[in-house]
Design goal:
The protein is an alpha/beta fold. It has two domains: 247 residues, NAD(P)-binding Rossmann-like Domain (Rossmann fold, 3-Layer(aba) Sandwich), CATH 3.40.50.720; 31 residues, no CATH class. The chain is built from ten helices and seven strands. Strands 3-2-1-4-5-6-7 form a seven-stranded parallel β-sheet, with helices on both faces. Helix 1 packs across helix 8, helix 3 packs parallel to helix 4 and helix 4 packs parallel to helix 5. The longest helix has 28 residues. The structure holds nicotinamide-adenine-dinucleotide (NAD). The site of nicotinamide-adenine-dinucleotide (NAD) has 26 residues, from helix 1 and helix 6. Nicotinamide-adenine-dinucleotide (NAD) binds next to helix 1 and helix 6.
Length: 287
C-alpha cells in the first residue's frame, strides 16, 4: 500500500462515486484529505465516518469565491496543500440539444474552468512547499467518441490537454499535472444525467454495478477505488518523474473495438465477409 502520511490532498466532488472512493483510499494511505462538494449531508457523514484527518468544505467548483473560501479553510485546518484531485463533475442531461450553446458553456464551466480555478488556489501553497501534484479527472469520453454526450466529451478532451499544458508551465515549481481517464465506473453520474433524484441515482449506480462486468475486456465491474488507487500513485513520490500524462483506468475498454476482445462480437463483425465462426474463434485461441 502506498504511504501518503504527511500529505494534504484536496478532492473535489468527494461526496459521491469516484471522489468518495478516492477520499477513502487516500485516508487509508495516511493522508489528510479535504473533500470539497455541495452535498453537505454526505460530506458530514463522511467526516463522521473517517474522523479528523478528513475535512468537508462546501463549495460549488464553478464559483471562484466559494473555492477561495474552501481553500482558506483547508489552509487553516491543515496548513497547506500537497495535492489536488480536480474531480467534481456531471454530464449534461442525456438527449440534450448539442447546439444549445448556453448548456455547452455550462458544461465547460463545470468540467474545465473548475480545474483552472482549483489549480489557481492550490498553486501558492504547493510552490511554498517545494512542489505538488495535481490530478484531473478526464474520461475515456475525452479519448474516443461514443462514451459520453457531446459537451461532456468535448470538455473531457480539453481536460487531457489542459493537463499537458499546465504540466509544461508548472514543472519549474516541481508541480506535476496528470489526468486519469476512467472507463465505466458505476456511480450516480448516470442516473443524474437521466434526471434521477440523488437517491435514485445511487440505486441505479448499484444496479449498473451488478451488470457492468462484461462491459470491458477485464471481466469485473470498475469501482471508484480503482480510480482512487491511481490517484494515490500520482499523489505519491512514486510518480515523481511523471507529468503531463493521462492514464486510462478502464479495464482495457479502449484497447480496441469490441471485436478485438469479445469473441461473439468478432464473429458478428467478420462472418459477413465469408469467414467462418470457427475461423474467427480460432483467432482467440482455445482458452
Ligand atoms: N462514473 C464514470 O463512469 C466516469 C467515467 C469517466 C469520468 N468520470 C468523471 O468522474 C468524475 C466524478 O464523477 P462520478 O462518476 O463519481 O459521479 P458522481 O455523481 O457520483 O460524483 C460527482 C460528484 O461531484 C459533485 N459535484 C457536481 N457538481 C459540483 C459542483 N458544481 N461543485 C461541487 N461539487 C460538484 C457531486 O455533488 C458529486 O459528489 C466526474 O468528473 C466524471 O465526469 C466518471
Amino acid at each position: 500500500m502506498i504511504d501518503l502520511t504527511g500529505k494534504v490532498v484536496v478532492v473535489t466532488g468527494g461526496c459521491s462515486g469516484i471522489g468518495r472512493g478516492t477520499v477513502q483510499v487516500l485516508h487509508r494511505a495516511g493522508a489528510r484529505v479535504a473533500c470539497i462538494d455541495v452535498q453537505d449531508e454526505k460530506g458530514e457523514a463522511l467526516t463522521a465516518e473517517l474522523g479528523d484527518r478528513v475535512l468537508y468544505a462546501h463549495a460549488d467548483v464553478t464559483s471562484e469565491a466559494e473555492i477561495a473560501a474552501a481553500f482558506d479553510r483547508v489552509m487553516q485546518r491543515f496548513g497547506g496543500v500537497d495535492a489536488l484531485f480536480n474531480n467534481a463533475g456531471a454530464a449534461e442531461p442525456l438527449g440534450s440539444d448539442p447546439f444549445d450553446v448556453a448548456l455547452f458553456e455550462r458544461v465547460q464551466r463545470l468540467l474545465v474552468s473548475s480545474i483552472v480555478l482549483g489549480t489557481k488556489f492550490a498553486i501558492p501553497s504547493m510552490v511554498g512547499r517545494g512542489g505538488g501534484s495535481i490530478v484531473n479527472t478526464a474520461s475515456i469520453a475525452g479519448l474516443q467518441a461514443g462514451y459520453g454526450p457531446f459537451a461532456y466529451s468535448v470538455a473531457k478532451g480539453a481536460v487531457i490537454h489542459l493537463s499537458r499544458v499546465a504540466a509544461a508551465g508548472l514543472a519549474k515549481y516541481a508541480i506535476r499535472v496528470n489526468a486519469i481517464c476512467p472507463g465505466l465506473i458505476p456511480t450516480a453520474i448516470f442516473g443524474r444525467a437521466l434526471g434521477d433524484s440523488i437517491a435514485d441515482a445511487d440505486r441505479r449506480a448499484r444496479d449498473i454495478g451488478e451488470r457492468a462486468h462484461g462491459f470491458q475486456p477485464i471481466r469485473v465491474a470498475g469501482a471508484p477505488e480503482d480510480i482512487g488507487n491511481a490517484v494515490a500513485y500520482f499523489v505519491s513520490d512514486l510518480s515523481r518523474f511523471v507529468t503531463g500524462q493521462f492514464l486510462a483506468v478502464d479495464g482495457g475498454l479502449t484497447v480496441g473495438p469490441r471485436q478485438a476482445w469479445d469473441e461473439d462480437a468478432a464473429v458478428e463483425a467478420w462472418t459477413r465477409f465469408g469467414m467462418s465462426a470457427e475461423q474467427i474463434r480460432g483467432v482467440f485461441g482455445a482458452a
